[in-house]
Design a protein that fits this description.
Layout lengths: L3 E7 L2 E6 L2 E6 L3 H10 L5 E5 L6 H13 L2 E3 L4 H20 L10 H21 L5 E5 L6 H8 L4 E5 L7 H4 L5 H8 L4 E4 L2 H15 L3 E2 L2 E4 L2 E7 L6 H9 L1 H14 L3 E8 L6 H14 L7 E8 L6 H21 L7 E5 L4 H10 L2 E4 L9 H7 L7 E5 L12 E3 L4 H12 L3 H17 L2 H21 L3 E2 L2 H13 L3 E5 L19 H10 L4 E5 L4 H8 L5 E4 L4 E3 L5 E3 L9 H14 L4 E4 L4 E4 L5 H19 L4 E5 L3 E6 L4 H9 L6 E6 L2 H9 L5 E5 L8 E3 L2 H12 L3
Helix pairs in contact: 1-17, 3-4, 4-5, 7-8, 9-14, 10-13, 11-12, 11-15, 18-25, 19-25, 21-22, 23-24
Subunit structure: Homotetramer.
Pathway: Glycan biosynthesis; trehalose biosynthesis
EC number: 2.4.1.15
């Protein structure tokens, strides 16, 4: 029976030493909570580091204990933790992905440690992996693991989720090992991020740095379909809501209140990290008190900072800075009965956190950059009376869902100051209106929905991959197709032109039908209804193919000529106002790319680069494609990366729609379609399961069968007509 293997840097349990004994303590994090329902079920397992470096003689004992808990350890030495985790993961990737470029460092020895540690994780998974298993890998520390597993087990199902932001191409390109990192992640089948922006940045980097074209959110990687998606992570809503309602939380709230006094409290809770914007929040609070002295003595900042990565120099410096600011502000405004900032450098159990969430009328969560941020969702779930105000950074992933919070730019100190005053003065009805909406959102999209959605999407993608795995058209299958054709009374055959009936030429005008193809079309058109469905201009198809008395569909379906009755424009076509903007962009790339040229059709523009130097052509095509997608994304257009072309056409038109329209009034008892590129996938997907669809060339496809080249296409067609 297949199992699910979860892989993360840390196990959902940590080992601590006490009096020489190993104590196993369960993690309270959102990921551990959400995935608990998976790894504890049946034969499923969780692979990760137990949080401590152990002597070799203890490892076997610990492994045995963890196996009993459905876990498998990856043991790391102190040196590996220092270079792989504290080094490359947290001083190269973490600052890069959070846009703190000045904290980035590039050390070859740390990259090697990262690679070696990732291999350790991959080896640990391999030890327990079986062919039908699902592997779900988590986060930036393990970006190489998906491809390491893919190399060893080509057909396994792999998911990857990144819990921190993914930076823009301009930042990610600074990392020397960027392509290896991208190719590592692309070993997965299904790749998830918290936000659409992160997903978009990843796709852009894959395209511009690793040379992979993408269509919407799909990438073809070595003939394997990879899908990238945005899935915001939730919390265990009921757990926090029930904890906040408990008598224990209420009693603790009362006890804390008695010692703190009657002033309003603003909750600020973060892990120690420069991405969390803690100093900026303190400065904003200082300025708020300075500009609004009437609130001195009436409002305090309840500052909780959870220790993290204390051994990293930048984190030590951050802690010192926070302590200095707290001391400075308290020294400036404190009285015998009033402390402006209550500062606590520690973590707290759930019951005390629930008390904090209850007693703080305002939560101020303003990271400089954050993948998601679950603290704000925990605060929302804990507001039993549906009051309170959330001040939230627009740079947090959660801001995409929680638009009823007071959203602020954490770099705008004046806006931060204004948000504090606005929160303190917000009427209770307005508080409740906003909180009710946010509670509905957070309660609907929980951690459990997130887990089910990811696993469901991963399995669905794997099923689509299997459906798109075309069979090689063997001699036996060819004989079956020929027999079906000869038995049919009303056959119809859809034929792409370039790459299917003729090879590609450097000059597109050299692709006119040769003598053999002319003879084939003449004979075939007498025995079947032929429809040539191409991206070519109508005038070109007229010149080359009208004499064969076959149907012609030009520019992917923009113009149609049935039975030689003349060209009709597709009624769904949009205006061509977009062409001037697209043409200007494409001509800019022609000037920079010797050998490239623009082909202009009535409703389509095509940039050709078959004559361009190989490396330069690929580079420029990726730049052009990204440029066009950015400027034309909302204009109802498709940007298609074809075989040595970048094409812009209206989205409403494609070969699949044109093929279905042509079949609408026909009762064909044999339907066949040939095509070689992505535009032909629309045809294969649109036709019914009874159609015989054939992909020309390698790669995943919606077609049932595959042949090598145009010569095999012609050979099959000759066999069907029974003469040559």
């Amino acid at each position: 029976m297949s199992k699910t293997i979860i892989v993360s840097n840390r196990l959902p349990i940590r080992i601590e030493k006490e009096d020489g004994k190993n104590l196993y303590k369960t993690s309270e994090g959102g990921l551990a909570t959400g995935l608990g329902s998976i790894y504890k079920d049946g034969d499923n397992i969780w692979v990760g580091w137990p949080g401590i470096s152990l002597p070799e003689e203890e490892e076997k004992e610990v492994e045995g204990e963890l196996i009993q808990r459905n876990m498998r350890p990856v043991f790391l030495s102190e040196a590996e933790v220092q270079e792989f985790y504290l080094g490359f993961s947290n001083q190269t990737l973490w600052p890069a992905f959070h846009y703190f470029i000045h904290h980035m460092r590039f050390k070859d020895e740390e990259w090697k440690a990262y690679t070696d540690a990732n291999q350790k994780f991959a080896d640990a998974v391999s030890k327990w992996l079986e062919p039908d298993d699902v592997v779900w890998i988590h986060d930036y520390q393990l970006m190489l693991v998906p491809n390491m597993l893919r190399q060893k087990f080509p057909n396994i199902t792999i998911g990857f989720f990144q819990h921190i932001p993914f930076p823009s191409y301009e930042v990610f390109r600074m990392i020397p090992w960027r392509r290896k990192l991208l190719n590592g992640v692309l070993g997965a089948d299904y790749i998830g991020f918290h936000t659409y922006d992160d997903m978009r940045h990843f796709l852009s980097s894959c395209h511009r740095l690793a040379g992979y074209s993408y269509n919407r959110n799909q990438i073809l990687v070595k003939n394997r379909l990879v899908e990238v998606d945005s899935l915001p992570m939730g919390i265990d809503y009921d757990k926090y809501a029930q904890s906040a309602k408990s008598e224990l939380a209420k009693a603790k709230e009362m006890a804390f209140r008695n010692s703190l006094g009657s002033q309003d409290l603003i909750l600020s809770m973060d892990r120690l990290d420069y991405s969390k914007g803690i100093p900026g929040r303190l400065k904003a609070f200082d300025r708020f008190l300075d500009e609004n002295p009437e609130y001195i003595g009436k409002v305090s900042l309840f500052l909780i900072v959870v220790p993290s990565r204390d051994r990293v120099p930048s984190y030590k410096a951050l802690k010192e800075k926070v302590e200095f600011l707290v001391g400075h502000i308290n020294g400036k405004y404190a009285t015998i009965n009033y402390v402006p900032i209550r500062f606590y450098y520690r973590s707290y159990p759930l019951d005390e956190l629930s008390a904090f969430y209850r007693m703080c009328r305002i939560a101020m969560i303003t990271p400089k950059r954050d993948g998601m941020n679950l603290v704000c969702k925990e605060y929302i779930a804990s507001r039993e009376n549906q009051d309170g105000v959330l001040i939230l950074s627009e740079m947090a992933g959660a801001a995409k869902e929680l638009s009823d919070a007071i959203l602020v730019n954490p770099n705008d100190e004046a806006e931060m100051v204004e948000s504090i005053k606005r929160a303190l003065e917000m009427p209770i009805k307005e508080q409740q209106r906003r909180m009710q909406i946010m509670q509905q959102t957070v309660s609907k999209y929980t951690i459990f929905q997130w887990v089910d959605l990811f696993i469901g999407n991963l399995r669905g993608l794997k099923a689509r991959q299997e459906a798109m795995a075309t069979k090689k058209l063997t001699e036996e299958l060819k004989e079956e197709l020929v027999a079906k054709f000869k038995k049919s009374k009303d056959p119809i055959i859809f034929l792409d032109y370039d790459g299917t009936l003729v090879p590609f030429f450097e000059d597109p005008e050299d692709s006119a039908p040769d003598e053999e193809l002319e003879k084939l079309l003449t004979v075939l058109s007498k025995k079947a209804k032929l429809v040539v469905i191409s991206g070519r201009k109508a005038a070109t198809l007229d010149k080359w193919l009208t004499k064969f008395h076959i149907d012609l569909i030009a520019e992917h379906g923009i113009k149609i000529n049935i039975d030689g009755k003349g060209w009709i424009k597709n009624p769904e076509i949009i205006s061509s106002e977009w062409k001037d903007e697209a043409r200007n962009i494409m001509e800019f790339y022609i000037q920079r790319t010797p050998g490239s040229f623009l082909e202009e059709k009535e409703h389509t523009l095509v940039w050709h680069y078959r004559k361009v130097e190989k490396g330069l052509g690929g580079l420029r095509s990726r730049e052009l494609s990204s440029h066009l997608k950015h400027f034309l994304s909302n204009k109802g257009l498709d940007i298609i990366d074809g075989d040595h072309v970048v094409e812009v056409k209206p989205s409403a038109i494609n070969k699949g729609k044109a093929a279905k329209e042509r079949l609408k009034d026909m009762n064909s008892d044999f339907v066949m379609a040939f095509g070689d590129d992505r535009t032909d996938e629309d045809t294969f997907e649109a036709l019914s399961d009874t159609a015989e669809t054939i992909k020309v060339g390698n790669g995943f496809s919606y077609a049932k069968f595959a042949v090598e080249n145009h010569e095999e296409v012609r050979s099959l067609l000759w066999n069907m007509v029974g003469e040559r």
